[in-house]
Design brief:
Number of domains of chain A: 1
Largest sheet of chain A: 5 strands, mixed
Strand order of the largest sheet of chain A: 2-1-10-5-6
Order of helices and strands of chain B: EEHEEEEEEHHHHHHHHE
Order of helices and strands of chain A: HHHHHEEHEEHEEHEEEE
Oligomer: heterodimer
CATH architecture of chain A: Alpha-Beta Complex
Strand content of chain B: 15-25%
Number of helices of chain A: 8
Number of strands of chain B: 9
Helix content of chain B: 40-55%
Structural class of chain B: alpha+beta
Structural class of chain A: alpha+beta
Chain lengths: ~260, ~280
């Protein structure tokens, strides 16, 4: 089928939908796929510009103990509704294991104790929600780069995907499981850690126990909680909605540096 | 500024006032400012509270907030500014969406899209932010290279004398606009207003906007110190946006009061008609 017909059918379809829903002309323009794809250009510009200016290793600001938020707001899921998770929680996460697989040389399953025995990094950083609020917390965990080096990435690996124990949106097709992904620049950034501790204590359930991602130069929705599996992949298109993350599949930017 | 022709009967002279680049960048700014404002309000609505400092969320004291509170079975919109609270039901905090009172910061007729959709609001905001920055860049290069700033916008020393300024303020207040030779140039108040927008408010919008970006914070951490933190930058971004809204309101009022047709023509074709000076 030619593109022209598709486009015309699309235009007719979207106009009908818009008028059926009683949307204003503005909203119809907003909802057009053409508009969306044009607006997406900005994400590429922002990412390329920031990466050019950042280099690979520019650090996010680290704060002092005095700057910690008195209350760190928990966001997203605060208690995963998942029988496996309840089991892990009841065992103080001693039965929980992190699976590391995909395009790696030596797939691994690591217990929380094993992760805690690896060299760690502690950082006091600001968490920025896409909604606009910020909270400062102290995180300790193992650098993701070190873990990836220990399992050995295959040369075709381009992205690291984080699978989570929380189904944030209940759907019949399972498309509502939380997941996230970052590229290798962020995966090997010195401040990118898998955190098991927050403000000097074990990570609380509301904040993603037992393990969450911290990727400090991006927004809050990239900081996936309740990690169960880390997967190295060559492309993101085959996972869930194909955009590399739960919120990305719902219209948000994959590159969340702004 | 080339004088093109003088009408023998009326004595009106058409002068070439705005260069093509100034006209194009002006209208591009109109488009960008409009979209940035309304998509910005959409983004604000995702968390309609402003803080001061490095951090700020629900449990921290806010500086300005718009909230919906329960009031005897109906929702009431409260806008807080510092210690003061105002009932703004119907406009801020709570407004009608499809006939139903709904909790939202700004009402649906002020946001892009009209319904709550942060992801789309951000897409529009950042796309037009890029256009706006590129447009501003070309305008600045042109303004410096063509001496537009020095020739048309920087006031002469004598224009800044208190006597001259008070004379202009008095004329403005009586809505007496310059004629003859005087009308060939921007008046001093105009020059100062345009300079403040171009070199203070707009750079402040870009600077505070970038300070909210965690990626850009790693590029230029000093911006956090300049604005006192990400949440302060967010607050300044909001307040500066409304300073620009105030500028646009006065600007449009002046366009109307000093001749809509003449002003619009000059910003579309470049030509501005000057009335002859009153004979004594």
């Amino acid at each position: 089928m030619s593109r022209l017909i598709t486009r015309r059918r699309f235009l007719i379809g979207s106009t009908l939908t818009a008028s059926a829903l009683g949307l204003s002309g503005c909203d119809a323009l907003v909802e057009s796929d053409r508009t969306k794809s044009v607006l997406k250009i900005a994400e590429g510009f922002s990412m390329k510009t920031q990466r050019f200016l950042l280099g690979d290793d520019a650090l996010a600001r680290e704060f002092g103990e005095a700057d910690l938020s008195p209350v760190f707001r928990a966001n997203g899921t605060s208690m995963p509704d998942n029988p496996h998770y309840l089991e892990w929680m009841n065992s103080q996460f001693s039965t929980w294991k992190l699976e590391v697989g995909g395009l790696v040389e030596k797939p691994a399953q690591l217990s929380l104790a094993q992760l805690k025995a690896m060299p760690s990094r502690t950082q006091i950083t600001r968490h920025d929600c896409v909604e606009g609020w910020s909270a400062i917390g102290k995180w300790s965990g193992l650098p993701l780069g070190a873990l990836l080096q220990s399992v050995g990435l295959k040369p075709e690996a381009r992205y690291i995907v984080f699978h989570c124990a929380d189904e944030y949106e209940k759907t019949l097709d399972g498309s509502g499981w939380y997941y996230e992904s970052i590229d290798l620049v962020d995966a090997f950034h010195p401040q990118t850690i898998l955190a098991y501790s927050m403000n000097g204590r074990d990570l609380e359930v509301a904040h993603g126990a037992p393990l969450r991602l911290r990727v400090e130069r991006q927004l809050g929705y990239k900081q996936a909680k309740y990690l169960t599996r880390i997967e190295a992949v060559a492309e993101l298109g085959r996972l869930y909605g194909g955009n590399g993350g739960f919120w990305e599949d719902r219209g948000y930017e994959w590159y969340a540096g702004i | 500024m080339a004088t093109i022709d003088a009408d023998m009967e009326t004595g009106r002279t058409l002068v070439y006032r705005h260069s093509l680049l100034v006209r194009l960048s002006h209208w591009m700014n109109v488009l960008c400012f409009t979209v940035l404002l309304f998509s910005g309000l959409q983004i604000f609505n995702a968390h309609p509270a402003l803080y001061w400092g490095q951090y700020g969320a629900d449990n921290d004291p806010s500086f300005i907030s718009m909230e919906a509170v329960e009031d005897g079975g109906s929702a009431k919109g409260l806008t807080r500014v510092g210690p003061f609270a105002f009932d703004t039901t119907g406009f801020l905090g709570v407004s009608n969406v499809d006939g139903e009172a709904t909790a939202r910061g700004f009402p649906d007729w002020l946001t892009i899209p009209s319904y709550q959709d942060l992801a789309t609001g951000r897409r529009w905001h950042f796309f037009f932010a890029w256009l706006f920055v590129l447009n501003g860049f070309f305008y600045l290069v042109y303004g410096l290279a063509s001496r537009h700033f020095r020739r048309d916008l920087v006031p002469a020393a004598e224009e800044l004398m208190p006597a001259h300024l008070s004379h202009e303020v008095a004329n403005h207040a009586r809505l007496r606009f310059p004629k003859g030779q005087e009308a060939r140039h921007y008046n001093t108040l105009q020059k100062l207003a345009y300079l403040a927008v171009i070199f203070l408010l707009l750079p402040l919008m870009i600077g505070t906007g970038l300070t909210m970006s965690p990626g850009f914070n790693a590029v230029a951490p000093w911006l956090l110190d300049v604005f006192g933190g990400r949440q302060s930058a967010r607050t300044i971004h909001f307040l500066t946006a409304f300073s620009l809204v105030a500028f646009v309101a006065v600007h449009l009022a002046m366009v109307v009061l000093s001749g809509v047709f003449n002003n619009l023509r000059s910003m579309i074709t470049g030509y501005y008609a000057i009335e002859p000076e009153d004979k004594p």
